[in-house]
Amino acid sequence: MPDNCIYITENDLNKLNALLRSSKGAQRRDEKSLQLLEGELNRAKVVKHQDIPPDVITMNSEIHLRDMDSQEETVYKLVFPHEADIDKGYVSVLAPIGTALIGCKVGDIIEWNVPAGTARWKVMKITYQPEAAGDFY
Is the pTM of this model over 0.85? Predict the structure, then answer.
C-alpha cells in the first residue's frame, strides 16, 4: 500500500480545483466522485511541476498497471473528464480508478471498490509523464 502521501503539481491542483468548482451542483451520480477527488487533493503534497518526481502519476500520464488478481496488465492515460475515452484507454480523473491513481507512484498498489468487490492494481511503470518530458502545458 502507498504511504498516505501523494504528490501533485501546482498546475494539476489548480486545474483540478477549477474542475471541482465548476462541477458544484453536479448530478448526484457525480457527487461522490467529486468528493473522493477533493479528499485526494486535500491530502496531497503540492510541488512545482519541475520538482515532481518522474515516477509519480500526474494528469496526462500514461501508466502500466497490473491487476493483482488476474496478473493482467493494462495501459491507461489519466485525463480530465471531457477527454475520457475508455476505448483509447483514456480514464477520467473522476472515475474511481482515475481518482485512485492521481499522485501515486511506481510500485504503489491501489485499491478501489467495484461492483464485484475490491479491485487491486499495482503501478508497474509510467511510460509518459508530461513533466518528465518537459511538457508543462
Answer: yes
Identity of the highest mean pLDDT range in 3-7, 38-42, 77-81: 77-81
Could you say which of 3.30.428.10, 3.10.50.30, 2.20.25.10, 3.40.50.300 is the CATH number of the domain covering 6-128? Answer: 3.10.50.30
In single-letter form, the type of residue at position 80 comes to F
Residues 6+ apart with CB under 8 A from 40: 6, 99, 102, 103
**CA-based R_g, the chain, Å:** 14
Domain ranges of the chain: 6-128
Tens of pLDDT along 79-108? 999 999 999 999 999 888 899 899 999 999
**Torsion, CA 58, CA 110, CA 84, CA 20, rounded to 10:** -70
Cα separation, 130 vs 113, whole angstroms? 28
